[in-house]
Write a structure and sequence with these properties.
CATH topology of the largest domain: Rossmann fold
CATH architecture of the largest domain: 3-Layer(aba) Sandwich
Helix content: 40-55%
Shape: elongated
Strand content: 5-15%
Number of helices: 10
Order of helices and strands: EHHHHHEHEHHEHEEH
CATH class of the largest domain: Alpha Beta
Distance between the termini: 32 Å
Radius of gyration: 20 Å
Largest sheet: 6 strands, parallel
Length: 277
């Protein structure tokens, strides 16, 4: 979903707003970001989300957004009043995408991003479908090669895989998610890869978690899921009876909603320590 290397905007544009078990049971004294309790002794399988957890997707989406937005702003100067491209991407464009997706609550479609560009231009300048669609096409070609793993991702996968079988559990368009997986040779780390569009289920539906764990033959309470989205990763894992770890790189408030993880991480590096690896 585009709902995060460098790109630069044209210089003429100016912006007005720049399998050994560890018996340790973690308690609130072990980590300043720990919300509840992580029972390491119960864990037999570990599941990872993809975007925002292993992949710095938002950075790629944001970078890919900059040049097409700058070109639109040259044509429609009213867009300049919105601020710099990163702000527009994160605080205006992404909320448009969520509004579009929430109308259907179905599987993510890249067409939603086309609609997002149309909404951006219509709401803040003028309705120009051709210009919006051209910006979308440029954006859609720009972000995939910018997609990078977080610095610690491979080392963490290697460490965790040495003790536990791993699952990759991701929402998203199958073609886009498989492209990311192949680009970074990620499938080699995982016993089982589950992409929502391929199985017809979406996080936070507990059924997708049950589907993911079924080939491994372990009980739900023996599974740990790590993800960055509380409403999908944490809510779904808890509903499925799994333990959950929330990756909170942005330092968002721990009490921002009712979806409380068993442990809160500021980066994946902390997972290795928490699991005693």
């Amino acid at each position: 979903m585009s709902p995060t290397t460098k790109t630069t905007s044209p210089t003429s544009t100016s912006w007005t707003r720049s399998k050994k078990k560890n018996s340790t049971r973690m308690t609130t004294n072990d980590s300043p970001r720990l919300d509840h309790r992580l029972d390491v002794a119960r864990i037999e399988v570990v599941s990872f989300d993809l975007d925002g957890t292993l992949l710095d997707s938002r950075a790629a989406w944001r970078a890919g957004f900059a040049a097409p937005f700058a070109r639109l702003a040259q044509r429609y100067p009213a867009l300049l009043t919105l601020g710099d491209p990163a702000h527009v991407h994160d605080d205006i464009y992404q909320p448009f995408l969520m509004t579009i997706w929430e109308r259907t609550r179905g599987e993510w479609s890249p067409d939603y991003e086309r609609d997002g560009w149309r909404m951006l231009l219509e709401h803040h300048a003028t309705a120009d479908i051709a210009a919006a669609d051209a910006a979308f096409e440029e954006y859609n070609a720009a972000w995939p090669p910018l997609m990078q793993l977080f610095e610690e991702s491979l080392a963490v996968l290697e460490a965790v895989q040495a003790r536990y079988p791993l699952i990759l559990l991701t929402n998203g368009n199958a073609a886009e998610q498989r492209m990311k997986i192949v680009m970074h040779d990620l499938e080699r780390w995982f016993r089982h890869v589950v992409v929502s569009e391929e199985v017809g289920l979406l996080k936070p539906d507990p059924a997708i978690f049950a589907h993911a764990i079924a080939p491994l033959g372990v009980l739900p309470q023996a599974a740990l899921h790590i993800g960055d989205t509380r409403s999908q990763d944490i809510a779904g894992a808890r509903a499925a009876g799994w333990q959950s770890a929330w990756v909170n790189r942005s330092g968002a408030p721990s009490n921002l909603d009712e979806h409380h993880p068993d442990v809160e991480l500021t980066s994946l590096d902390e997972l290795v320590r928490l699991l005693g690896l």
